[in-house]
Amino acid sequence: MTTQPSGSTAPPDTRSTPPPVPDLIRAGVVTRFGGPEVLRTVRLPRPVRAPGHALVRVHAASVNQGETKIRRGLVPELGSPPFVLGSDLSGTVVEAEPNGRFRVGDEVYGIHFIGTYAEIVSVPEASLAARPATVDHPTAAALPVAARTALIAVVEYADLRAGQRILIHAAAGGVGHLAVQLARQRGAYVLGTARAAHHRFLRDLGVHEPVDYTRTDFRSVARDVDVVLDLVGGDYGRLSLDALRPDGLLLGAALDPGVTEPEAHRRGRRYRWLGGTRLTAPLDTIRELVDAGQLSVHVERTYPLSELAAAHARADTGRVTGKLVVTIDDVPAAGGAA
Ligand SMILES: NC(=O)c1ccc[n+]([C@@H]2O[C@H](COP(=O)([O-])OP(=O)(O)OC[C@H]3O[C@@H](n4cnc5c(N)ncnc54)[C@H](OP(=O)(O)O)[C@@H]3O)[C@@H](O)[C@H]2O)c1
């Protein structure tokens, strides 16, 4: 079952009464900064809904590279352990702001930077949107951070046009495989870096030229491209300037982008980092694309919350195809699920 937030042209109200909210909830906690082994599933008092928030029963979350960095202590300004990790969610509203955007029973997805590996979470209404109706909760949970980043890069920052050429590094990963689809929709010519084992996947997504970065210097294949979306960082940032046409645009997403705006400017290229953009406005667009069959997220594997450390260990390999999902409860695919 999927419903729209109140205030929209809603279909008939078929919401069922959600089960009672427990006093103790299960949550995936970072006990200290470190490897996947620092993650523990514990029981915590259920959170109280904050003003302007909706209390959401989380059915599924996903693993983003950002969370592996927070877990390792690379973003210490977000707080000291112990804390609940997790940024994406797909779930059901169990307590709503009076006269707010959502009602109890609404099915939502969204981004809440710390705390979605939990059965219940209090989330600002502005960080939530109605979830796509055509996919199940685990699939919806794989979308928010990765698809938002891909959309902002390809559509908002690059404003990619038909006939332009884009090079996407880590094209088989969470952000990359969604960016490929968005770039193709805009009529661009797409080059993407990945190991040979991923080239079939890339071609199926629509990549015109997969580049095996383990055998080929991508700069020997990608020349005079209009845009590079660098999802690897480090040396790739500086080297990617060589692949751009004069005044071409490099978009960096990694914590260590390996290049600065003045450096790009000196080389006659433009550079932008993808952080700090509007929080959730793209969630409505992403839902529309998914429900129209124009954007599809690939889930490599789904892990139960009790295997959160295994999910993070897999993410740490840097070899994931698409996304990893963590299911928080036993709620199966919702009505209308693909
Ligand atoms: N700033 C933001 O708002 C924001 C938001 C989301 C993500 N990010 C950042 O964007 C980056 C990508 O995130 P993600 O979630 O898409 O990562 P991911 O899913 O973990 O990426 C995995 C992919 O990376 C590929 N890969 C690994 N090393 C590579 C290399 N040297 N060259 C080309 N491909 C390589 C792998 O393909 P092969 O196995 O074929 O090598 C694999 O498919 C991370 O640094 C993340 O922190 C930033």
Keywords:
7-stranded mixed sheet, Rossmann fold, 2 domains, alpha/beta, 338 residues
Describe the model:
The longest helix has 14 residues, at 144-157. α3 packs across α4. This protein has helices spanning 65-72, 137-141, 144-157, 174-185, 199-205, 218-221, 235-243, 261-266, 282-291, 308-316; strands at 24-30, 39-45, 53-63, 83-84, 88-95, 107-111, 120-124, 128-130, 165-168, 189-193, 209-211, 225-230, 244-252, 270-273, 299-304, 323-327. α4 (174-185) links the parallel β9 and β10. The protein is 25% helix and 27% strand. It is globular. Strands 3, 5, 6, 7, 8, 15 and 16 form a seven-stranded mixed β-sheet that branches. By secondary structure, it is α/β, with parallel strands linked by helices. It contains ten helices and 16 strands. It folds into two domains: 24-143 and 297-327, Quinone Oxidoreductase, Chain A, domain 1, CATH 3.90.180.10; 146-273, 3-Layer(aba) Sandwich (Rossmann fold), CATH 3.40.50. The site of NADP nicotinamide-adenine-dinucleotide phosphate has 30 residues, from α1, α3 and α4. The site of NADP nicotinamide-adenine-dinucleotide phosphate (NAP) has 30 residues, from α1, α3 and α4.
Map the helices and strands.
Layout: E1 24-30, E2 39-45, E3 53-63, H1 65-72, E4 83-84, E5 88-95, E6 107-111, E7 120-124, E8 128-130, H2 137-141, H3 144-157, E9 165-168, H4 174-185, E10 189-193, H5 199-205, E11 209-211, H6 218-221, E12 225-230, H7 235-243, E13 244-252, H8 261-266, E14 270-273, H9 282-291, E15 299-304, H10 308-316, E16 323-327
Parallel strand pairs: 9-10, 9-12, 10-11, 12-13, 13-14, 15-16
Antiparallel strand pairs: 1-2, 1-4, 3-5, 3-7, 3-16, 5-6, 6-8
The protein binds NADP nicotinamide-adenine-dinucleotide phosphate (NAP).
